[in-house]
Specification:
Distance between the termini: 28 Å
CATH class: Alpha Beta
Number of strands: 9
CATH superfamily: Ribokinase
Number of domains: 1
Radius of gyration: 17 Å
Order of helices and strands: EHEEHEHEHEHHEEEHH
Strand content: 15-25%
Helix content: 25-40%
CATH topology: UDP-N-acetylmuramoyl-L-alanine:D-glutamate ligase
CATH architecture: 3-Layer(aba) Sandwich
């Protein structure tokens, strides 16, 4: 019996906390073999992003073709697509290969505040939504995609999720980590009308670098293992919450440190 496989299509964080590094750690922690397609090289650490070098679109396409024609992929996680050309290449690949479980984390801004999506790319990112099974925006990202103000409560989160569903996604998970209150609440709203409320105690920590990447890749891992989407989302929420709770034990960097992806082992 072969292992479940997931691939991440995202940017590289050399400090290991976000992007492809976080995705591969998450896949491994959740029992999934991870492959990786690099869309951008970044110069960043726990304190910020200091430079971005976009991988040429034809080389992104070459990586995609190499992986998709050889590996039996159970899920695809898409993260940073910094340029319009990168988005176009990924969209064409999704149309060509038709993978079933595509999770899109619409990365626009790094945890430290630096913009990761080029101007003019937002419209193309919206077009990509119709090709994915799950879209996982945080509150600012959902607002940017809809050109509106961030949701202030769960009712507004649900309304924005419905509007994003209208763009063609199979499901939308609106992440409430940027909100307030004692709980961090995410809402999974599916096109079939089902809604799942995922709540966890809000954890007081500065070490949240890569949280969005980790949640999206955890959902992809669950789907790669054959879990139904609600179960994959529950597993992902529990995993990320535990990784955040254990993050302070790592002591990595002097800024916003990474999650402890391997909290269950060391």
């Amino acid at each position: 019996m072969s292992a479940p496989i997931a691939v991440t299509i995202a940017g590289l964080d050399p400090s290991g906390g976000a992007g492809i590094a976080a995705d591969l750690k998450t896949f491994s922690a959740l029992g999934v073999y991870g492959a990786a397609i690099v869309t951008a090289l970044t110069a960043q650490n726990t304190k910020g992003v200091f430079g971005i070098h976009d991988v040429p679109a034809d080389f992104i396409a070459a990586q995609i073709n190499a992986v998709f024609t050889d590996l039996s992929l159970g899920a695809v996680k898409i993260g940073m697509l910094g340029s319009p050309a990168a988005i176009d290449v990924v969209a064409a690949a999704l149309d060509r290969y038709r993978p079933g479980n595509v999770v899109l984390d619409p990365v626009m801004v790094a945890s430290s505040g630096q913009r990761l999506l080029q101007g003019g790319a937002l419209g193309r990112l919206r077009d990509l939504i119709a090709r994915v099974r799950v879209l996982t925006p945080n509150l600012p990202e959902a607002a940017a995609l809809l050109e509106t103000a961030p949701a202030r409560d769960e009712a507004e989160m649900r309304v924005q999720a419905q509007k994003l569903l209208a763009l063609g996604a199979g499901a939308v998970l609106v992440k409430g980590g940027h909100g307030g209150g004692a709980e961090s609440v995410d809402l999974l709203v599916e096109a079939n009308g089902e809604t799942l409320r995922l709540a966890a105690p809000r954890i007081a920590t500065e070490n949240t670098h890569g949280t969005g990447c980790t949640l999206a890749s955890a959902i992809a891992a669950g789907l790669a293992k054959g879990l139904p989407l609600p179960a994959a989302a529950r597993e992902a929420k529990a995993y990320v919450s535990a990784a955040i709770a254990a993050a302070d034990r790592l002591g990595v960097g002097s800024g916003h440190g990474p999650l402890h992806h391997f909290h269950a082992w060391w």
